[in-house]
């Protein structure tokens, strides 16, 4: 297949481009340029990953312009030209909810999460598109090539860096109570690739369906690199929008894919 990936230079985009090329697909990348929408007519699929992904970004207009307005224009072009469309949503749309089903309640807690929910909401409001439209609500994605994300990188990457360089891993107070569904980027890529072959549209959770605490992750990494763990207070700018629990309900996705999810421990020990 001929595939266009927006945001191909980002963490997931880089990994997905390599993965799809290894499966024999022809992949081209696109980076966001204001007021420029790529021509999707030459492709079988557009995979739209490009977005402002910083959850602490406060410029609402900037986020809506890139994450919502651009996404709408790209989808409309794909629908007109017959190009199937995959896009990245986010489990951040669930906010502080304790259940995580695609048709369940949502509670976006920051502009980034709202931009993702608004696009999901539009997708759900349309009875039928002329092309396949698949949205993926990523849970907490981690893996190779995310070092450039710095503060936005996963705790797996941040803790590993701290353990290697300082021999001290810094975790927030009460980290034993912060439980997240951490999903390896390799598995995310497998989901995208398998779903390209499925004649189905909809929004799907992408996680492992299991949780791991931040403290447990720190312990796994500390053991490997012989590092200590130090507790620090949570910054005030995070405390009012911090998800303490996420766990993907995979009932919908599991009807279409077959995958053995990698655990954080398996990933760390393989490095």
Strand content: 15-25%
Helix content class: 25-40%
**N- and C-termini, Cα separation:** 32 Å
Q: What is the assigned CATH homologous superfamily of the domain at 2-141 and 184-207 and 248-259?
A: NAD(P)-binding Rossmann-like Domain
Count the DSSP helices. Answer: 8
> At the first level of CATH, what is the class of the domain at 2-141 and 184-207 and 248-259?
Alpha Beta
The tally of strands reads: 12
Which residue ranges are poorly predicted, with pLDDT under 50 across at least 5 consecutive positions?
Answer: none
CATH topology of the domain at 2-141 and 184-207 and 248-259, by name, is: Rossmann fold
The strands making up the biggest β-sheet line up spatially as 2-1-3-4-5-10
- Which CATH architecture of the domain at 2-141 and 184-207 and 248-259 is right? 3-Layer(aba) Sandwich
Report mean pLDDT, rounded to a whole number: 94
Order of helices and strands: EHEEHEHEEHEEEHEEHEHH
How is this fold's topology laid out?
Elements: E1 2-6, H1 11-22, E2 26-30, E3 45-48, H2 60-81, E4 84-90, H3 111-125, E5 133-138, E6 140-142, H4 155-165, E7 168-172, E8 179-180, E9 182-184, H5 185-195, E10 202-206, E11 212-213, H6 214-225, E12 228-232, H7 236-239, H8 264-270
Parallel strand pairs: 1-2, 1-3, 3-4, 4-5, 5-10, 6-9, 7-12
Antiparallel strand pairs: 8-11
What does this molecule look like?
The chain is an alpha/beta fold. It has a domain at 2-141 and 184-207 and 248-259: Rossmann fold (3-Layer(aba) Sandwich), CATH 3.40.50. Helices cover 35% and strands 19% of the residues. The chain contains 8 helices and 12 strands. It has helices at 11-22, 60-81, 111-125, 155-165, 185-195, 214-225, 236-239, 264-270; strands at 2-6, 26-30, 45-48, 84-90, 133-138, 140-142, 168-172, 179-180, 182-184, 202-206, 212-213, 228-232. The strands form 4 sheets. The chain has a 6-stranded parallel β-sheet with strand order 2-1-3-4-5-10, sandwiched between helices. Strands 6-9 form a two-stranded parallel ribbon. Strand 1, helix 1 (11-22) and strand 2 form a beta-alpha-beta unit. The model has no long low-confidence stretch (mean pLDDT 94).
């Amino acid at each position: 297949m001929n595939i266009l990936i927006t945001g191909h230079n980002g963490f997931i985009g880089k990994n997905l481009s390599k993965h799809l090329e290894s499966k024999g697909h022809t992949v081209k990348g696109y980076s966001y340029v204001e007021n420029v929408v790529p021509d999707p007519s030459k492709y079988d699929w557009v995979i739209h990953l490009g977005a402002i992904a910083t959850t602490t970004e406060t410029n609402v207009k900037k986020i809506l312009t890139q994450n919502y307005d651009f996404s709408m224009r790209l989808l409309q072009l794909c629908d007109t030209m017959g190009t199937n469309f995959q896009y990245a949503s986010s489990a951040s749309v669930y906010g502080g909810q304790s259940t995580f089903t695609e048709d369940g309640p949502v509670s976006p807690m920051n502009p980034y999460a709202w931009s993702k929910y608004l696009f999901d909401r539009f997708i759900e409001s349309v009875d039928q598109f002329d092309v396949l439209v698949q949205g993926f609500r990523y849970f907490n994605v981690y893996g190779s090539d995310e070092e450039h994300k710095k503060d936005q990188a996963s705790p797996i990457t941040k803790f590993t860096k701290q353990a290697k360089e300082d021999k001290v891993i810094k975790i927030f107070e009460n980290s034993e109570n912060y439980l997240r569904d951490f999903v390896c980027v390799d598995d995310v890529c497998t989901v995208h690739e398998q779903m390209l072959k499925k004649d189905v549209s909809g929004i799907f959770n992408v996680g492992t369906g299991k949780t791991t605490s931040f403290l447990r992750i720190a312990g796994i990494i500390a053991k490997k690199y012989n590092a200590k763990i130090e507790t620090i207070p949570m910054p005030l700018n995070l405390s009012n929008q911090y998800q303490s629990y996420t766990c993907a309900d995979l009932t919908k996705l599991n009807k279409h894919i077959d995958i053995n999810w990698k655990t954080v421990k398996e990933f760390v020990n393989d490095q």
